[in-house]
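Q: Could you fold this chain for me?
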Amino acid sequence: MSLTALLFPLIMMQTASAELKISFSNLKEAKGQLYVAVYATESDFLNTDKVYAQQIVPVKQSGDLEMTFALPPGKYAISCFHDVNSNGKLDTNLVGIPSEPYGFSNNARPRFRPPYWSEACFSLPAGTTRHPVRLDTW
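A: Sure. Below is the predicted structure, expressed as structure tokens.
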């Protein structure tokens, strides 16, 4: 058996790709931008300096919006917020509670803290996967 035949399965695993289609729901205002961050490790989760992939798109209609990411298969978690007033940040009240709509993968919404990686992570296999995220205010 040739070396190429032995390595072919490894080469195919490395080049396999996945398409993550995220369906965002409950966008109440047709203005501002939707900030979306995809994290690939627990240690990077919610660290804005360690985002694996991100997109910022204008919100032109209320209701639903879909976004697509091309990623290698693996484990990921999503964090997003609707920057309604277009100031480039998630606004919070005096005690740090978000005042703009936000969401996480698996629709993780614990009270009084951000979600843990284990609550928000999901497996992304090769091929196309749809993942819903609902945006809400606290």
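A (continued): Confidence is low (pLDDT under 50) at residues 8-13.
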